[in-house]
């Protein structure tokens, strides 16, 4: 699908790469996002990648929808997906006791043992698709079909930061205390919010993620 451009309000252009998430759409978004980081068009102030599109936000004093679209089309025409450089990020997770309150329910829903759910989660093929909802809230695709469960019918309040959760084909690690309707199957001490203005979050869009199992003792030690 040829990228489609849509003006948004008075200060943004939405570039849409497809109607549904797929590998080709995903690779196009990652490549476009990195190209924008390396060579942002004049007047553009921020790029916000999502599942099937990228929002280009601009300063209306410096440019407008037409000028930005021309610049974005030029960038797209010279863009290559053959030089994408992504990183694999390791996230530790403890699946034990009170740190995995929904593990048993997920196992029952999927007809598996709790250890089989853990093994399936550890073997997932995770990629960071987008950020949303809260700071550092990275949506990852790649949850094994064997443990894909829907969201709960009602959210639960005060879920602690570091909760490892799944819903459908997606997984994420919470960064702040918040409500959620996702299934909590573990807790991670791995810092996602970084004390670095130049790099505020652990993940970049397109990064792969490997989950590494740790014990309760290791979790408590890491959490201080």
Automatic annotation (TrEMBL):
<dbReference type="InterPro" id="IPR010016">
    <property type="entry name" value="PxpB"/>
</dbReference>
<keyword id="KW-0067">ATP-binding</keyword>
<feature type="domain" description="Carboxyltransferase">
    <location>
        <begin position="3"/>
        <end position="203"/>
    </location>
</feature>
<keyword id="KW-0378">Hydrolase</keyword>
<dbReference type="GO" id="GO:0016787">
    <property type="term" value="F:hydrolase activity"/>
</dbReference>
<dbReference type="InterPro" id="IPR029000">
    <property type="entry name" value="Cyclophilin-like_dom_sf"/>
</dbReference>
<keyword id="KW-0547">Nucleotide-binding</keyword>
<dbReference type="InterPro" id="IPR003833">
    <property type="entry name" value="CT_C_D"/>
</dbReference>
<dbReference type="Pfam" id="PF02682">
    <property type="entry name" value="CT_C_D"/>
</dbReference>
<protein>
    <submittedName>
        <fullName>Allophanate hydrolase subunit 1</fullName>
    </submittedName>
</protein>
């Amino acid at each position: 699908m040829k990228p489609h451009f849509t003006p948004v309000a008075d200060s943004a252009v939405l570039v849409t790469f497809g109607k549904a998430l797929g590998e080709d759409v995903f690779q196009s978004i990652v490549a476009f996002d990195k190209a924008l980081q390396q060579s942002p068009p004049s007047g553009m102030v921020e790029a916000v990648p999502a599942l099937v599109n990228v929002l280009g936000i601009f300063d209306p004093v410096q440019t407008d929808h037409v000028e930005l679209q021309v610049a974005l089309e030029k960038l797209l025409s010279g863009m290559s997906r053959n030089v994408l450089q992504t990183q694999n990020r390791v996230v530790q997770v403890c699946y034990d006791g009170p740190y995995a309150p929904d593990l048993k329910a997920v196992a029952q829903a999927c007809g598996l043992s709790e250890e089989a759910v853990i093994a399936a989660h550890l073997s997932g093929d995770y990629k960071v698709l987008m950020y949303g909802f809260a700071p550092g809230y990275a949506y990852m695709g790649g949850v094994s079909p064997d443990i894909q469960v829907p969201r709960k019918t009602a959210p639960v309040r005060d879920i602690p930061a570091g909760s490892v959760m799944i819903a459908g084909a997606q997984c994420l690690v919470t960064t702040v205390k918040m409500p959620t309707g996702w299934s909590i199957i573990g807790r991670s001490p791995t810092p996602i919010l970084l004390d670095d203005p130049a790099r505020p979050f652990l993940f970049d869009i397109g990064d792969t993620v490997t989950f590494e199992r740790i014990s309760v003792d290791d979790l408590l030690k890491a959490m201080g």
